[in-house]
Design goal:
The chain is an alpha+beta fold and 821 residues long. The chain is built from 10 helices and 18 strands. Keywords: Membrane, Signal, Transmembrane, Transmembrane helix.
């Protein structure tokens, strides 16, 4: 009777487990009418006190409910198969129990046979007395500290490939260990002689008779539990015995069983959040790579602009500015004062003197000579007075003849000076017409190159276009990074919150808590990344638009003001206008050596022509003066000679008068031309001063531009730092987030895939032998672990146990059938 009671206990303990079990459903069974079939298998196992198998049987019950006829083929063990409802045998076909049943209400068919398969569970029990491992029989009658250690292992484990989302839009696979998921409990009652009972795993309570009841729960499948469970207890014993223990277990679906459904859903959500984390991190990393590439393009453009600015500064400071200074010095220090002195000499001295000479010859000497000739060639009574007049004329002509060589020498000096002036003007015109435009063209080419490098927002390959694209892409990318990071942070927080409420095996609680803390730290890091990305977005937007506006104020959104592009355009226009004005003014003022042209060289040519004519006239005048002097000396020799000399004198005076008129006109023209030369030289000097001042300012501005671009390309504070920072953020930040997201997706994804595989195995392998086609089925295992008390009795009470188990089977069938309704 004692054995029968202990045999019935585990069967009764199966009831709460089976109430939650999900039935396995196959295709419809062959039946007429409305008949529901349920198959319950109860496997009873006896182990010795160390966990070695003694015997195992399986009790099978087919429960029919409804009205009609049903034919079933029920897989069973044929070894020792017995009918527990009577003495008739069973019809067997190919190892299946075959039966046709008429049902009107409820019917049951019960059988028992030997369990001829490998058990899905193993149990090992170890006993330690006072720190020494002993056999169970060695405990009997002893006193001391007893430690009992159980190891229960799910033997259905196997390695199979599972698949899960990798977070990058694809599917990853992994080899994982799956089992037929089983849950169970082990119950043992310690006698009153066991005191100071402790256990880290058991629920401990009294049995109402002075003893201590221990109950151990087992979740024998990963990842919620483990395929192996280890637990035990310790107690101080006297007159020791080994208490027996009862273990019950049954397969369940972790996706449907109420105790594990929420945990499975949490793991699934963790995998989905891991996928979202990876996807968001991949997007962040891609945008960061775009930011890095844009910053590298910006750096390349700034380096080109820096080189161009250095060349511009070198050209302005080393060539254009010194040349402009020399030009200004030459024009203002030499040409303008010399031209002014020439104008003063021609206009103040030579031109008035030539006018007075022409006036004296034409208005005085020539009329007197004509009168003298007339008087000499006309008979008169006043001959002696004519001789006196001839003597006076001879004396005057001698004085004039003495002054004439000085006049001729002065005219030669004037002619030489005018030639030097003309040569200088020609050289000035040639130099300024060649060198100034060449310098201006070189400067213009440099400015055009800089303007082309700057470009506009519609030209993505230029500096401004690259900056604008970089600003748009980087701020958008930084905004996306911030949004994704914040989303990731919220998702991780949700995962951590959900996982925090999930109960795991106590042995793994510490590692599980550490993992949750790491996950929370990862969420906080993602939040910090989101805040940093938001700050980066604001900083990048402000900094890059400031650079754009500084380079070109015409960019949309920039305030009106000075910019590099505007300065270059003004510089190009100002230099071009200045050079054109100066070259045009100087070349126009200088002109050519055409006497008809109203220019400096034209005036000089006229002046030279007048001086040449004056020289020719003076030479002729000198000859005539010699003749006049000789004729005047010979007046006393005869009236005829005087008359002839006077005639020659008149003719010479007429020629001299004509030459003096030409000389006066040429001197006047030379004076006017020299005045224009002086004015043009002053204008050219002023223009060259403006050119020099402008080029000085341009050189200073190009130096500032070069310095600013040097700062922009500085390795620690400029664009290189942005490139390096983006690379570092990729290497140390987003790539790590991607890796963490992949790890999270893989971890939770693999765990949920294992749960799915376990659930599938529960559906296909959960029963010991299987149910008839179309019937609901469930299997429960009742395992008794024998004790040791020295009595040696082993009353199996098999008949009573069978009655109790089948009573349990009826309850199971009813519960399963109700769950199907």
């Amino acid at each position: 009777m004692r054995r029968t009671l202990w045999t019935a206990a585990p069967a009764v303990a199966l009831v709460p487990l089976l109430c939650g079990a999900a039935p396995a459903t196959a295709a419809a069974a062959a039946s007429t009418g409305d008949v529901t079939v349920t198959d319950t298998e109860s496997v009873q196992v006896h182990l010795d006190a160390s966990g070695s198998l003694q015997d195992a049987r399986v009790f099978d019950q087919l429960a029919f409910a409804g009205t009609g006829t049903a034919t079933v083929r029920n897989p069973v063990s044929t070894s020792g198969l017995r009918n527990l409802d009577g003495f008739r045998g069973w019809k067997l076909e190919d190892g299946d129990q075959v039966a046709t049943v008429d049902v009107d209400g409820e019917r049951r068919l019960r059988s028992m046979s030997d369990y001829d398969k490998d058990l899905p569970l193993s149990v090992k029990v170890t006993y330690t007395l006072d720190g020494k491992v002993v056999k169970p029989g060695d405990v009997v009658g002893r006193s001391g500290t007893l430690e009992v250690h159980y190891v229960v292992e799910n033997l259905t484990a196997k390695t199979q490939q599972v698949s899960f989302a990798d977070g990058k839009g694809g599917t990853a696979t992994a080899d994982a260990t799956t089992v037929v998921p089983m849950i169970g409990e082990l119950v043992t009652v310690l006698p009153p002689s066991f005191t100071a009972v402790t256990s880290q795993e058991a629920a401990i309570g009294g049995d109402g008779r002075g003893g201590t009841q221990l109950q151990f729960q087992m979740t024998l499948f990963p990842p919620i539990g483990s395929a192996t469970a280890e637990f035990g207890y310790s107690a101080h014993i006297s007159k020791g015995v080994v208490p027996k223990a009862t273990m019950t277990a049954l397969p369940v679906s972790p996706l449907d069983f109420p105790s594990y459904k929420d945990g499975s859903a949490t793991i699934k959500a963790g995998g989905e959040q891991g996928v979202a984390l990876t996807s968001g991190a991949v997007q962040i990393d891609a945008n960061l790579i775009k930011l890095h590439d844009g910053a590298a393009q910006l750096l390349g453009g700034l380096l080109q602009l820096k080189d161009g600015a250095a060349q511009l500064h070198s050209g302005l400071a080393d060539t254009a500015v010194p040349g402009a200074d020399q030009l200004s010095s030459a024009l203002g220090g030499k040409l303008a004062p010399g031209a002014k002195e020439l104008a003063n000499g021609l206009g103040g001295e030579l031109a008035p003197g030539a006018g007075e000479l022409a006036d004296g010859l034409n208005s005085r000497l020539l009329p007197g000579a004509n009168q003298l000739v007339a008087g000499l060639t006309t008979p008169t009574k006043d001959a002696p007075s004519l001789v006196d007049g001839a003597a006076l004329v001879a004396g005057g002509l001698a004085a004039v003849n003495q002054a004439a060589p000085g006049l001729v020498d002065g005219l030669d000096q004037v002619a030489g000076g005018l030639k030097d002036v003309d040569d200088g003007l020609a050289l000035l015109s040639s130099t300024i017409s060649t060198e100034a435009p060449a310098g201006q063209q070189q400067l213009h080419a440099g400015i055009v190159a800089l303007e082309a490098a700057l470009g506009s927002t519609s030209q993505p390959t230029t500096i401004i276009g690259g900056l604008d694209a970089l600003r748009a892409g980087s701020t958008a990318g930084a905004g996306q990074i911030s949004a994704n990071a914040n989303q990731i942070s919220a998702g991780i927080a949700a995962i951590a919150s959900g996982l925090a409420s999930f109960h795991v095996d106590p042995a793994e609680q510490a590692a599980y808590t550490a993992t949750l803390q790491q996950l929370a730290g990862l969420g906080a890091g993602a939040g910090q990344l989101g805040a940093a990305a938001a700050t980066l977005k604001t900083t990048l937007g402000t900094s890059l638009i400031t650079i754009e506006c500084g380079l070109d104020a015409s960019v949309a959104g920039c305030p009106a003001g000075a910019s590099v592009a505007g300065g270059l355009a003004q510089l190009d226009h100002g230099v071009s206008q200045l050079v054109d004005t100066v070259v045009a003014g100087v070349t126009a003022a200088v002109g050519t050596a055409d006497p008809k042209q109203k220019s400096l060289r034209g005036g000089v040519a006229q002046l030279r022509g007048g001086v040449a004519e004056l020289g020719d006239g003076s030479e002729t005048l000198g000859g005539y003066l010699d003749d006049l002097e000789a004729g005047a000396a010979a007046v006393s020799g005869g009236v005829d000679q005087v008359a002839d000399g006077n005639e020659q004198l008149a003719a010479g005076l007429r020629t001299a008068a004509k030459g003096s008129s030409k000389l006066a006109k040429g001197a006047a023209d030379a004076a006017a031309g020299s005045k224009r030369l002086a004015d043009g030289a002053e204008q050219a000097a002023a223009g060259s001063s403006q050119l020099a001042a402008g080029l000085h300012d341009a050189a200073d501005g190009s130096g500032q531009l070069a310095d600013g671009l040097g700062q922009a390309t500085d390795d620690t504070t400029g664009a290189p730092a942005l490139v390096a920072g983006a690379q570092r953020l990729h290497d140390e930040g987003t790539s790590q987030v991607v890796a963490s997201g992949e790890e999270t997706a893989a971890s939770f994804g693999t765990q949920y895939a294992v749960l799915q595989a376990n659930a599938q195995r529960a559906a296909t392998e959960g029963m010991a032998y299987g149910a008839p086609e179309g019937a609901a089925g469930a299997t429960a295992y009742s395992i008794e672990i024998a004790g040791a008390d020295g009595a040696g009795s082993k009353a199996l009470g098999l008949g009573a146990a069978g009655v109790v188990l089948f009573g349990l089977g009826a309850g199971i069938a009813t519960l399963v059938r109700r769950r199907l309704v």
